[in-house]
Design goal:
Length: about 525
């Protein structure tokens, strides 16, 4: 009898092992059908058309989470108006290096998008990118002084040529009539203005890239498919467990390279991969809401992105702005976002996401980070407990004549900020994006939030260098990268001729405004 039971157990074990054998071989698995996976897949397929790519998305739509137009600010982040990229140092000077870097990275994105449009792999550019002026707006003596110093520094930088500054009420009223109407002329105010700012519909952009990928030989895009687990194969490749959410059946895919671009869901999958590089990472979720204007007459009176200063302790994604959007060819006007807290890591996630992400490896970094970020905790508590009257009061600081009846509260996207181990503090909270990859380059995950989507191309270039070093060093890939991104390996901010060439070419292809940069400009001026 014992022998029979032993034979049965062995048989069951063998069947179980067979069930987990790869049912399909592929070169690349991309987890999530958002802007990051769409960008990486498009770049890889362009560089090596022979590679097989499988894309898995747990929802029934492409770009339905963080990349969706209603789930993010849609700002083409160039640091024209975002004051958090230019902090004032204790000595009173303005730190502007990050602003230059963000601008450079967005120029890289525009080059890639222009290439894809020219190659017929993206639809008409007006479907995903349009000119909307970028404005920084502040009030109060201290803030006005800060903005003037910021302008003095940035206006001397090559890529910020054309920035305007004013404290004049009538000038500001022309730039942003809704913001100035009904405002006291005695109030100390100032603003900077950049006419070449952009609004980007990352949902439309993502769908365009995925649609093009679907047409390529060797590319498979499967919706309603959730990646549940990742396990190393003996040869170093990855066995990816994918569940068909309609049939609830599992299938097993063997992939040479896996990219986890699942937004807030990336952290949990990174943990399941068990790569040493992913240990100790934690995540802090921040939710958001918008006030959306439902009065089209008001919508038509505003055509800019007006950014202010964030509140004390506020995360970058919570910088208030009165924001013109172009969504599916129609203008919209939003204000916010109002930050909040939810234990979900995805908008359509589970309230258990935060709890499930806590491990013995990241427990201390997360606890110590919480203790070191009391201002953020207080800020989120204030935001969560806001009334409708509180939200309207915040809106009136940017639109004095706003009326509650013209606005509706809508849920925005969910973001997960990075928590990392730190020798000094135990853990630190990072407001940015970070690529975490296995030492052998066989797996990479993208963690974090802003400025994410705007700098997606530069982020993916970094990933390619880390995970495909031999291929990137090859002559074929070098030529391919320069074809997609003419400034590849160079700094536009240090080369006026190249900057003029790239910006003018991209702007013509994408239908955008641009400035001819000063030929007498010299680096370091």
């Amino acid at each position: 009898m014992k022998n029979i039971l032993l034979i049965l157990l062995i048989s069951v074990a063998i069947v179980g092992c067979r069930n987990k054998e790869a049912q399909e071989q592929t070169d690349v698995v991309l987890v999530g059908a958002g802007i990051m996976s769409a960008t990486l897949g498009s770049m890889i397929k362009t560089l090596d058309p022979k590679l097989k790519i499988n894309i898995y998305e747990r929802l029934d739509l492409v770009a339905a989470e963080s990349s969706d137009a209603w789930n993010n600010a849609g700002t083409g982040h160039s640091a024209f108006c975002e004051l958090n990229y230019t902090p004032e140092l204790p000595n009173g000077q303005i730190e502007f290096k990050k602003a230059i870097s963000i601008n450079e990275h967005f120029e890289v994105s525009k080059q890639f998008w222009a290439y894809m449009v020219s190659a017929g792999k993206l639809p008409a550019p007006t479907s995903f990118i349009n000119n909307v002026p970028h404005i920084s707006f502040v009030w109060g003596d201290k803030n006005v002084l800060y903005l003037k110093k910021r302008y003095d520094v940035l206006s001397k930088q090559l890529l910020f040529k054309g920035m305007k500054y004013s404290e004049n009420y009538d000038t500001l009223a022309k730039w942003m009539p809704l913001v100035m109407k009904g405002r006291s002329r005695k109030q100390k105010v100032a603003a900077t203005y950049m006419s070449i700012g952009t609004d980007v519909n990352f949902g439309s952009l993502t769908r365009g890239l995925i649609s093009s990928l679907r047409k390529e030989k060797g590319v498979k895009v499967e919706l309603n498919h959730e990646v549940k687990n990742l396990k190393r194969n003996p040869d170093g490749s990855w066995l990816v467990t994918v569940t068909d959410l309609k049939t609830e059946k599992d299938k097993y895919i063997s992939a040479k390279f896996v990219f986890i671009g699942a937004g807030g869901g990336a952290l949990r999958l990174l943990q399941k991969s068990k790569i040493p590089e992913g240990k100790g990472f934690g995540g802090f979720p921040v939710s958001g809401e918008w006030l959306v204007c439902n009065n089209q007459k008001i919508v038509e009176k505003h055509i800019s992105k007006v950014y202010g200063k964030a509140g004390v302790g506020a995360p970058p994604m919570s910088v208030p702005h009165l924001d013109t959007r172009i969504i599916n060819g129609k203008k919209a006007l939003l204000f916010g976002p109002y930050a909040g807290f939810s234990s979900k890591f995805l908008k359509q996630g589970s309230y258990l996401d935060l709890t499930r992400s806590i491990t013995l490896k990241n427990m201390w970094p997360m606890l110590s980070t919480g203790m070191d970020n009391i201002p953020l905790t207080k800020y989120l508590i204030r935001q969560v407990t806001q009334s409708d009257e509180d939200r309207l009061k915040a809106l009136k600081e940017y639109f004095p004549e706003a009326e509650a009846k013209d606005w509706k509260l809508e849920t925005a996207g969910q973001r997960v900020q990075i928590i990392k181990k730190d020798k000094t503090h135990g853990g630190v909270l990072q407001f940015g994006t970070e690529v975490v990859n296995a030492q052998d380059g066989s797996l990479a995950a993208l963690l974090g939030a802003s400025p994410g989507a705007s700098t997606s191309v530069d982020i993916m270039l970094t990933l390619l260098k880390q995970c495909f070093p031999k291929e990137v060093a090859s002559n074929a890939w070098q030529q391919g990268l320069r074809k997609m991104i003419p400034s590849y390996g160079k700094m536009l901010s240090q080369d006026v001729a190249l900057a003029n060439q790239v910006r003018s070419s991209n702007s013509k292809t994408l239908g955008l405004n641009f400035f001819v940069l000063d030929s007498t400009w010299k680096a370091g001026k």
